[in-house]
Amino acid sequence: MPTYTPPLRDMQFVMHEVLNVVDELTSIPRHADIDADTLNAVLEEGGKFASEVIQPINLSGDSEGCVLDKTTHEVKAPAGFKDAYAKYVEGGWAALSCDPEYGGQGLPFVVNQCVYEMLNGANQAWTMYPGLSHGAYEALHAHGTDEQKKKYLPKLTSGEWTGTMCLTEPHCGTDLGLLRTKAEPQADGTYKITGNKIFISAGEHDMAPNILHLVLARLPDAPKGSKGISLFLVPKFHVNDDCSLGARNPIFCTGLEHKMGIHGNATAQLSLDGAVGTLVGEPNKGLPAMFVMMNAARLGVGNQSLGLTEVAYQNALAYAKERLQMRSLSGTKAKDKEADPIIVHPDVRKMLLTAKAYAEGGRAMSIYTAMLLDKALYHPDEKVRKDSEEVVGLLTPIIKAFLTDNGFAATNHAMQVFGGHGYIHETGMEQFVRDARINMIYEGTNTVQSLDLLGRKILGNQGATLKKFGKQIEALIAEEGVNEKMSEFINPLAYLADQMTKFTTEIGFKGFVNADEVGGASVDYLRVAGHLVFGYFFARMASVALKKQAEGSTNPFYTAKLQTARFYFARLFPETASLMRTARSGVANLLETDEALA
Amino acid sequence: MPTYTPPLRDMQFVMHEVLNVVDELTSIPRHADIDADTLNAVLEEGGKFASEVIQPINLSGDSEGCVLDKTTHEVKAPAGFKDAYAKYVEGGWAALSCDPEYGGQGLPFVVNQCVYEMLNGANQAWTMYPGLSHGAYEALHAHGTDEQKKKYLPKLTSGEWTGTMCLTEPHCGTDLGLLRTKAEPQADGTYKITGNKIFISAGEHDMAPNILHLVLARLPDAPKGSKGISLFLVPKFHVNDDCSLGARNPIFCTGLEHKMGIHGNATAQLSLDGAVGTLVGEPNKGLPAMFVMMNAARLGVGNQSLGLTEVAYQNALAYAKERLQMRSLSGTKAKDKEADPIIVHPDVRKMLLTAKAYAEGGRAMSIYTAMLLDKALYHPDEKVRKDSEEVVGLLTPIIKAFLTDNGFAATNHAMQVFGGHGYIHETGMEQFVRDARINMIYEGTNTVQSLDLLGRKILGNQGATLKKFGKQIEALIAEEGVNEKMSEFINPLAYLADQMTKFTTEIGFKGFVNADEVGGASVDYLRVAGHLVFGYFFARMASVALKKQAEGSTNPFYTAKLQTARFYFARLFPETASLMRTARSGVANLLETDEALA
Predict the structure, then answer these.
(1) What pLDDT was estimated at residue A294?
(2) Could you give the residue ranges of the DSSP H alpha helices within B324-428?
(3) Does some domain include residue A230?
(4) Mind giving me the DSSP string for A373-404?
(5) A51 within some domain
(6) Does A329 touch chain B (CB under 8 A)?
(7) Cα torsion for B412, B414, B418, B421, to the nearest 10°?
(8) In terms of residue numbers, what domain contains B500?
(9) How far is Cα B344 from Cα B356, in angstroms, rounded to an integer?
(10) Does A399 touch chain B (CB under 8 A)?
């Protein structure tokens, strides 16, 4: 069975040594009293919860899955899930970054980010229950009426009740404009909602007494398409004014999907038959309201793959040191053993280092983005808020797509290190692969992310946001460009940064003539952008490590950071050479293929 | 549920229009009377068997899996598997390319290759039962005593009995030198074999009355390591002189693995407790004897992924034409529908074309290799036999690793086209991914293949075999170099062929100084070599299509071939640019990482 060690030291490195999050966060009045010890202590406890409470039920949850009782429409989560959730609520983990007005602890989002990385590394399927609840919290917090907030937010903050996002219908996933679920206004100001939803994660379960469904539906006279969608809050049980539970609302689970992975999470088909809901936000503006939740969810999905990358790496590393098989090509290394541990083989190291670099680059990028999110929400300076929000918008599709593609590659590499044993359920490695696979699909496929990045976030404002982020890269290059020890990291980064401007302009021009050119280049473009961001953070991490060494540190931790950065630039970053070539090949080789795709 | 259409026209194109297999094969006396109609007719029937008999039980076989009765040690294959196998035997499919001396039909291996591609596309888990049996047939045919052949080959030829390869033990997979199973010589010339084997595909089942296990074990005074391994034939039931079944031999299934995919195939733990076997080949020379089987198996594994690539592509293509979601970026295409079919989106086409190109390149390469195998076995000219065998040896690790890596990418792309629906079991797309995943691991991991290719097959004879294959590329370049219409295909191929020589020499020199350099470059090197071979076949296929068009053909089939070749060179082949860069980065960035991998 796999094990999981919370990567606390690595998180501290990023937070305190690379990003100086305490200095950055204390400039926000709300977080003025944050200090490093508090952050570290919370993460240490969060790590314990992840590794001791939910990690041990990850593999069994996968074997067991969720079970629907077709007569009662109730779903039983796998053994241990409910108890673990009770401990989560009891520990106050749901309230971590929530608003103190509703019982939250008001901690920065950076903390939430790190805790969720660990929860996901320990058990993605379980973590989706609180994850979706937190998304519902955010949507209600941003768009709910005062009455809704007062009634529901305390229970979402404490975690006593959970939440869902009910978007997808059988005929519409990416294209929510097609959705058909109807909402009929009632005399009392409520709505009766009727329709069928599918793929509803955490859609029904026995872990909490009530579930708050956020449901997209159409009002009777709504415009067609995506401008006619409204958002409704539909509780599983009605809630009385004293917050006690009332009657069952007719929103029933009619089926659970049998799927490739995340078996411990109930992916529900929900049937609404005149279920009573209240409107969240304005009529016909459900999609923008839902996007509050969706953007958070996209960062959350990247975080799921980050967690899986780390845990898969840890287990593959341990196995590679232990498993004896063949001798090193350059001569026996373990003379006292009947074979060498497989970590002596260069390609085994390459697979391990790939996963490690993806984890470390992903962690730096995610914590950085979380810090920007804290600024975007509560920084006193409006310009800082706006700029931060813009860069978060730029990085969100990259985190979602780049980190989940990387996570799938990383979990596959880690599984491959196990050889045949990796294909067997009991080692847990193939579960990481199956769980990681959904992350490339849900909350907007990775293709959709790439269109969001290139079409909207970059070309949408003539590259202004990209330039904003590019200024930081320029500053780093200016600062470190003369440092000879940094040249192996700075040179490729500077080269790519330079190329990126031309590359973007070129696609922009082509897209201006034919919009399909954007769609033909966007997926490759996103990976190049991902490497630009990773390259920047790896250079920053290397810079910190070199400074520590210059100050006399002989701590192998910093040597490790340099080795990983070196590996990253030598073995992963060069992918950009091919990606730019294929992205530049033009869309004709895709579109003029009607005979090939007949 | 997925469907499968045998790709007969594509096979005919490769066989008759690109490779001229009939001319090539009729130069072999044994196959002198082969003609195109016969080949096509056999494949048509084979395609029917695949699509009508075993494809319908693929998804259900995955859901159901194999069940072990722990008291009787008997295994039940999924519903329908036994009946389908009876039809396979009845149809004479097992005997296709077997020796007429033992009841075989003596057809060329090319036929077997194509039939197996279709069987694998229809149902990989089922096809492993006859596939392993055929491997056992080949090992016995090459190394068995006359008595063994007479007794066992007719039953393997007819398929009445099945076979296995028993190599792996819990502590040894890649490194068979570590194996511990013991063989004690008996007074009557037989051996009593004791030990534990794991991961034995098709290791126990109810589809045939007897199973012939080929077991690697050590004689009492065997040298240590891989030079002390012998091969034994251990039947499940002893066989009397009249070929009737005798007593049960104590080789029992003690467990079945729960694994990521190929659920329909029983992956058995086998316990041998003094099971009686007979020696196959010479004492202590079991490994070379087993390699007859292993090389065939490696081609077979590439073929499994080829089959999966094709079937996944077919289903994703159908879905992309049907599923309505969003509008084309360049304006509405299906005005009469509420959304455009997703095939209008460039990236959806890219995913489809990637799978298609991998299927078509893989098919050309595999049929070509099968044709060489026919020559290697039975061509009257010894030099042709030797040259063919050498090139088969070169292409075998490429087929195994390149086609299985491509197959994993292709099945994942096809699944991604389905969006969330691809993650659900009932569409069958995620099964293709799970089944395809094992192919990168078993019969020697893809890393092992890359070391076999670069270390043994290429550097092992100073690139002589590679040059042999390179001569064909040179000939094509010389022939088509002046043809302007071919330049888009010939130029990149010629460039890579030129680079390849330098690239190989460079790694050879580095490897001479430090053998680990080979291990640090081999995986990337193999993919570059794969593209060199694919590039060669895509150029040949494009050349055929252009000739047909020049002759006045307006058949869209040839237009499709040109589009696919164009896509391949524009979007897939450029991967070589990055691969050569990373392969050249040197092994230090992998080996000087002890702190990073602490």
Answers:
(1) 85
(2) 346-378, 382-417
(3) no
(4) HHHHHH-SSHHHHHHHHHHHHHHHHHHHHHHH
(5) yes
(6) yes
(7) -50
(8) 458-589
(9) 17
(10) no
Look at residue A295 in the predicted model and tell me its pLDDT: 85
Separation of alpha carbons A123 and A432, rounded Å: 10
- Which sign does the torsion angle of CA B584, B353, B470, B97 carry? positive
Q: Three-state SS across B22-87?
A: HHHHHCCHHHCCCCHHHHHHHHHHHHHHHHHHHHHHHHHHHHHCCEEECCCCEEECCCCHHHHHHH
Q: What is the pLDDT of residue A28?
A: 97
3-state class of A332 per DSSP? Answer: coil
Q: Are A307 and A407 in contact (CB under 8 A)?
A: no
Yes or no, beta carbons of B423 and A441 under 8 Å apart: yes
Locus of tokens 């579109």: A591
The CATH number that applies at residue A51 is 1.10.540.10
How far off is chain A from B585, nearest CA to CA, in Å? Answer: 6
Residue ranges for chain A with pLDDT beneath 50: none
Q: Report A:506-535 residues touching B (Cβ under 8 A).
A: 514-516, 518-520, 522-523
pLDDT at A429: 98
ipTM: 0.98
- CB of A199 less than 8 A from some CB of B: yes
- Domain end call among A105, A127, A155: A155
Q: Are B437 and A423 in contact (CB under 8 A)?
A: yes
Helix or strand holding residue B2 (H, E): none
Among the options A443, A488, A575, A592, which is catalytic?
A443
Cβ contact (<8 Å) for A424 and B174?
A: no
Interface membership of A325 toward B (CB under 8 Å): yes
Task: Using DSSP, state whether A362 is helix, strand or coil.
Answer: helix
Number of domains comprising chain B? 1
Set of chain A residues whose Cβ sits within 8 Å of the Cβ of B416: 440-441, 445-447
| A552 CB-contact burial (10 Å; exposed 0-12 / middle 13-18 / buried 19+) | exposed
Residue A418 identity = F
CA B587 to mean position of chain CA atoms? 30
Is B255 a member of any domain?
Answer: no
Token pair of B330 as six digits: 């360049």
A464–chain B Cβ distance below 8 A for any pair: no
Q: Which residues of A touch B167 (CB under 8 A)?
A: none
Amino acid at B61: G
Q: CB-based contacts of A491: which residues, under 8 Å, 6+ apart?
A: none
Residue with tokens 């072990």: B68
Vertex B103: Cα angle to B97 and B105 (nearest 5): 35
- Are B83 and B7 in contact, with CB atoms under 8 Å apart? no
pLDDT of residue A296: 86
Query: How far apart, in whole angstroms, are the C-alpha atoms of residue B424 and residue A173?
Result: 14
Q: Which of B24, B169, B430, B443 is catalytic?
A: B443
Please report whether residue B507 resides in a domain: yes
Chain B, nearest residue to A10 by Cα:
B596
What residue ranges of chain B have pLDDT lower than 70? none
Dump pLDDT digits (tens) for A25-61.
999 999 999 999 999 999 999 999 999 999 999 999 9
C-alpha distance from residue A207 to each of A80, A88, A258, B162, B562 (Å): 10, 11, 20, 49, 57
- Strand B211-217, strand B267-280: pairing: unpaired
3-state secondary structure of B433: helix
A463 near A508, Cβ under 8 Å? yes
Q: List, in order, residues 6 or more apart from B471 with CB less than 8 Å away.
A: none
Q: Which residue type is seen at A467?
A: K
Boundary of a domain, candidates A97, A131, A155: A155
Instruction: Detail the DSSP E strand segments found in B181-324.
Output: 182-185, 191-201, 211-217, 230-235, 237-239, 245-248, 251-256, 267-280
